Amino acid sequence: MYQALYRKWRPMDFEDVVSQSHITKTLKNQIRTGKTAHAYLFTGSRGTGKTTCARIFAKTVNCPNEKDGSPCLKCDICKAADEGVLNDIIEIDAASNTGVDDIRELRDSAAFMPERGKYKVYIIDEVHMISQNAFNALLKIMEEPPEHVKFILATTEVHKVPATIISRCQRFDFRRLLPADIVARLMYIAGEEKIQLDEKAAYLIAKLSDGAMRDALSILDQCMAYSEKVDEEVVSSAVGIAGRGSVYDLLESIVAANASEAIGKLDRLYEMSKDMQRLCEELLMAFRDMMLIKSVPGKDELLSCLPDEAERLKEFAGKMELGTILDKLTVLQECNERLPKVSSKRIEIEMCFLKLCGAAAFSKTPRGPADSRSISELERRIARLESAVSSGKAAAPAVAEPLVPAKQSDIPEPVVDTGKIREEDLSAVSDWGGIVERVMERHPEVGGFLAGSKGFIYENVVFIIVDNDFFLKMFKQTDSAKAIQDVLRDYFGKTYAIRVKSAKNVSPEDKDDPLRRLIDKAKNADIQVDIKQ
User: Fold this and answer.
1) I need a surface site. Which of 104, 324, 325, 335 has the fewest CB within 10 A?
2) Which of 12, 61, 64 is closest to 38 using CA atoms?
3) CATH number of the structural domain 244-356
4) What would the pLDDT profile of 96-151 be if each residue is shown by its tens digit?
5) Which fold has domain 5-173?
6) Contact present, 66 and 98 (Cβ < 8 Å)
7) In angstroms, rounded to a whole number, what is the distance separating the alpha carbons of residues 463 and 496?
8) What is 419-440 written as a DSSP string?
9) Does domain 408-524 match CATH 3.40.50.1980?
């Protein structure tokens, strides 16, 4: 019968335990010198070796041929312990035995002497699950147990264990396994099992396991069923993650604030049945790496990415300020928390992507009575103003009227005959980047699509050149024009008509169209223009 890898390769002695040398060395020394405690508390996250070390300890203290704190693995007691049939080692699942009667039964059985070994060892797994009354019943026997009884309590949530119980135990905290240690163990097991495992695939499995050896072996088991040769692509397909290439493609669109491109890539991943929760977690880790690159440069050992991915992440981090990265991390954290609870994960993560592409304007609560922009965004605006003042470029805006909002009902939208506009009459909006930034702050669903656009002005008309057709459709079907008008009105103190043109959809035969000349002007301004024949 086939046996799962995590069961087949469970460590049999302390030497096989990975990344917990601070614990295994202490336990071995206690056994070797005969100074073992009567009660232990093993804490730590899942898959770090708590139950495994408890079993090895229980086996070793009963092994008649124990040497230097290690079991012989050859005697009848060691073999019976490994097969789970040694009656002197009693494992109790606290999640299923939570009541006070279960603990009373344990207390009564503890009075009897061990059958074959020197000690009766009670291993209580997930001990935090038992009731308060059960803890009270356990307390007395843990305080003054018979000499032949030892307790090992294991838990992932030590804060739920009463202090009176903790104070009667020697506590050992199990660390998450280091990725390098998991990779080394996976490669060793793959060699023994004759599995063709690529080292990069092993590193990806180590990242996905989040420091848990059991999870890593379960993922490897899953990949083996998917393909005989396990590489990065096989891991991505078997587990349902987006894959490193797809993640970095998404990051490129997010960093460029290109919402339409990011949503398009997300849609393709969704159609391929990729796990949206996993995708969100992968993006979280990528932005976490960028945060560390920005805040503690030169500490590449702290990064969770592969070495050849670090350079690309550094390139992305160089295009953003630390405040922006922190804002995006917050958005992803909130999305990751909501995803398990919502009915449509697709809608939730699409909303998240629109926020990620909408710059740093997404503080959940207002920072002040009149402004809901994030602190990092305000810091950036202040820095730009200080720079302008110091360089002497902070001139007053060239507008005839003060920058005060005007009611739309007071100023009707002007009508302009575009056929009479001459090329020399068109002038670029000097602070178009600042206007786009304001649109992103107020209407991120619109501002995200204005990334890379250019604005030109003629009398009461603002012409916008965008580089995608998707925004043109959205512009016609939604209130995008009003959103942009509101920002322009607040900025200039007057209402402008909005005309939007896609740089990809201009007829080359339309020589006299002033918008054609506008496209030419956009080209001269280093905007990429693709003319469809």
Assistant:
1) 104
2) 61
3) 1.20.272.10
4) 877 888 888 888 888 889 988 899 999 999 999 888 888 888 888 888 888 999 99
5) Rossmann fold (3.40.50)
6) no
7) 10
8) GG--GGG-EE-TTHHHHHHHHH
9) no
